[in-house]
Specification:
Strand order of the largest sheet: 1-2
Number of strands: 2
Shape: elongated
Distance between the termini: 20 Å
Number of domains: 1
Number of helices: 4
Largest sheet: 2 strands, antiparallel
Radius of gyration: 16 Å
Low-confidence stretches: 139-143
Mean pLDDT: 86
Order of helices and strands: HHHHEE
Length: about 140
């Protein structure tokens, strides 16, 4: 057992775990921002565009977090994805509600800046949900 067994999942060093979380989150954010930007440039309203962007970013985030944050060696399972999706849609609702509130309260704001603010708010909820629900160990093994 590693010296870090209680600090991060799977005995990872907390710094590596944290960097994996940041990298995976940044990757999902980049996908979210790219899709949002592309759709708004094509004329879609930012609030509608964000729904599509969140969906695409969610899949990218799941694959990245299982590889880089939680370093899972097991193949992905449907139950894991469903837990991840449940956590992330809850987080997405928080993120989206914050985004909509910012856009409605500050109509002249660039959608990208509203995205940054809403994503920061949701980040804490995302980590806790992934750590204790989506990628938790079930019965001593990863499900």
């Amino acid at each position: 057992m590693s010296n870090w067994s209680g600090a991060a999942p799977g005995g990872q060093h907390p710094v590596k775990h944290g960097l994996g979380f940041l990298f995976s989150g940044a990757l999902a954010f980049a996908v979210d921002a790219s899709v949002l930007t592309a759709l708004t440039l094509l004329g879609m309203h930012p609030i509608a565009a964000r729904l599509f962007a969140i969906s695409v970013a969610m899949v990218a985030g799941w694959l990245a977090h299982r590889r880089f944050t939680f370093r899972l060696a097991t193949p992905p399972t449907a139950s894991e994805f469903l837990r991840y999706a449940a956590v992330q849609w809850t987080v997405a609702a928080i993120n989206y509600a914050t985004f909509v509130a910012i856009v409605l309260l500050q109509p002249s704001i660039e959608p990208f800046y509203a995205l940054i603010a809403s994503s920061l708010v949701a980040m804490v909820f995302a980590y806790l949900g992934m750590r204790f629900a989506a990628f938790r160990k079930l019965g001593g093994t990863q499900d």
